[in-house]
Amino acid sequence: MQPLAYRMRPRTINEIVGQQHLVGPGKIINRMVKAKLLSSMILYGPPGTGKTSIASAIAGSTKYAFRILNAATDSKKDLQIVAEEAKLSGTVILLLDEIHRLDKTKQDFLLPHLENGNIILIGATTENPYININPAIRSRTQIFEVTPLAPGDIKQAILTAIDDKQRGLGELPIKIDEVALNFVSESTNGDLRSALNAVELAAKSTSPDSEGTIHLTLEIIEECLQKRALTQDKDGDGHYDVISAFQKSIRGSDTDAALHYMARLLESGDLQSVIRRLLIIAYEDVGLANPPVCQRTVSAVTAAEHVGLPEARIPLANAVIELCVSPKSNSAMVAIDNALTDIQSGHIGEVPDHLRDAHYKGAKALGHGIDYKYPHDYDNDWVPQQYLPDLLKKAQYFDAKGNSNFEQKIRDQYKTLKKAQNSGH
Questions:
Q1: Right CATH number for 331-423 from 1.10.10.10, 3.40.50.2300, 1.10.3720.10, 1.10.3710.10?
Q2: How far apart are CA 274 and CA 260, in angstroms?
Q3: Whole-angstrom Cα distance, residue 176 to residue 157?
Q4: Are 329 and 408 in contact (CB under 8 A)?
Q5: What is the per-residue pLDDT for 237?
Q6: H/E segment holding residue 121
Q7: The CATH number of 151-225 is which of 1.10.260.40, 3.40.50.720, 3.30.300.30, 1.10.8.60?
Q8: What is the pTM of this model?
Q9: Domain map of the chain by residue range?
Q10: CA 20 to 30 Å from 109, out of 63, 280, 333, 424?
């Protein structure tokens, strides 16, 4: 009767879905397991992203005993039982869920066991550990962030679960439509637990058709997820079409269209796509024309992440409306892309000698840093000197558009400095 998500937990780190920045070959947790040099850690990130899975996989890979407790609901006595087990049988890996709610009494009991290595603590939390976890625990742990899984990772995990005859649904004659698979992979916002639970409910509550096949359609998956595929079409591309229309509506300053497309994304539960896209839009399409709205967009996105849906719609709506009515400029994006074009084309050149690092023995003999002019020693803390390599000393990447008073000031100052710089050589 255990849920599919529980049964499909990875047994070793090689079976972990996603989080390759931590468990992939050569990455930190993979190295710890390979060297059998585990240290206590805190894993923080959204629900369903693999914190418990990573802990159980570490235990499975190292063959250490594995215990799970909850910092909020389990008592000091429960911790004492784990500590006694560690004394008798050796190292125990303890997954402590909701570690941000660990009180001082339990903490004081736990700390000596962390220091002597009897207990390898893996704390799990959805809260920011740098803010919500006691410094005494933080100082004895490494902190790793886990991120929402990509749709491709979730899709592969679902297919694995459908095929697995021992732990998964492989004994059932399941056929899942591609559009349904794409929908459950994309609309669960990186939460693999929710995706697997929905697929299991769909599979076990759907009667076989005339050919004996359990056919999972988009409509069945929608019902089991309780989300409507408003952003899907029969080819699975509609989701990305709506995201594209969302950005283009803001770029085109159509407030009502932007709110419409954001509402479609939010109604389908795709909060993460809205958040990612708004951050991109703020700096790509508004940018230097209105820097304060970029900062306020970051604040709105942060608030939305904290409160979640449905309340997240409120700060996000504020950001969308302000982005729409704001003046627009992509001059910063164009500037960095112009610079990257030179780099990618091989137009790089040598760093001028007077700008090179002079903080080592022998630098002077090489002529490094000798003729550098320290701007703060001059009037207005500025002095003309060459900064670009000789090959690129005439390059100009930035072309401000002047679509707002702020950007006009930036453009004028840029041109003034550039003219003075060029005339000074």
A1: 1.10.3710.10
A2: 12
A3: 14
A4: no
A5: 52
A6: strand 119-125
A7: 1.10.8.60
A8: 0.58
A9: 4-145, 151-225, 238-325, 331-423
A10: 63
Alpha helices in 228-330 (DSSP H): 238-251, 255-267, 271-281, 291-307, 313-325
Query: Which range, of 223-227, 279-283, 286-290, 369-373, averages the lowest pLDDT?
Result: 223-227
d(C-alpha 316, C-alpha 277), whole Å = 11
Residue type, 335: A
Query: Could you tell me the pLDDT band of residue 231, with boundaries at 50, 70 and 90?
Result: very low
- The percent of the chain in helix, strand and coil, each rounded to the nearest 5, is 55, 10, 35
Quote the mean pLDDT of the chain. Answer: 89
Cα–Cα distance between 418 and 81 in angstroms, integer? 70
Q: Looking at residue 50, what is its pLDDT? A: 87
Per-residue pLDDT at 308 exceeds 90: no
- Residue in this structure with the two tokens 């074009």, named with its chain if needed: 341
% of the chain with per-residue pLDDT over 90 = 59
